[in-house]
Amino acid sequence: MGLFNAFVKLLLRSPLHGLLGNAMLITVTGRRSGRAITTPVNFVREGDDVLVTSDRRRTWWRNLRGGAPVTVRLKGSDRSGRAEVAADDRAAVAEGIAAYLRAAPAAARWFKIALDSEGRPDRADLARVAEERVVTRIRLDQGVR
């Protein structure tokens, strides 16, 4: 883990977590190791769900294939939920990224996805990004929001 991620984790666990906007910690259990793996990620809300996108080359999300329980540190509170990752089905990844952009249109610039005048993403850009990324949808358990 890099020094930057260590700093972000510390900040997200502190009362200053709000300085990082839409960043949270996600904790997954390693399928082989059984160890808890915690990583900082950016997120958006879509209804009652939380959407996270990650570079396909990272490894933490692989523990979520087929669905898995997770814990997130979201806005200063720990929440449990169930996560499903879209990785192999590029159409599902593209739809997840489109949903992410509906919630956070400014992220299109970071992804290098053009948006039309109505905020819809360019299909070719979306397909390109779906090759590079995965999308995780987290259904939070009922409780404090």
Explain the overall architecture.
- It is a single chain.
- The protein has a 7-stranded antiparallel β-sheet.
- The chain has a single domain (about 5-140), classed as Pnp Oxidase, Chain A (Roll).
- The chain has helices spanning about 5-10, 90-105, 105-110, 125-130, and strands spanning about 25-30, 35-40, 45, 50-55, 70-75, 75-85, 135-140.
- The model has no long low-confidence stretch (mean pLDDT about 90).
- The two termini are about 30 Å apart.
- It has about 140 residues and is an alpha+beta fold.
- Helix content is about 25%, strand content about 35%.
- The protein has 4 helices and 7 strands.
Could you give the distance between the termini? Answer: 29 Å
Question: Which segments are poorly predicted (pLDDT under 50) over 5 or more consecutive residues?
Answer: none
Helix content: 25-40%
Strand fraction: 25-35%
The ordered H/E elements are HEEEEEEHHHE
Biggest pleated-sheet summary: 7 strands, antiparallel
CATH topology: Pnp Oxidase, Chain A
Name of the top-level CATH class? Mainly Beta
What structural class do you assign from the helix and strand content? alpha+beta
Number of strands: 7
Overall spatial form: globular
Superfamily (CATH H level) name: Electron Transport, Fmn-binding Protein, Chain A
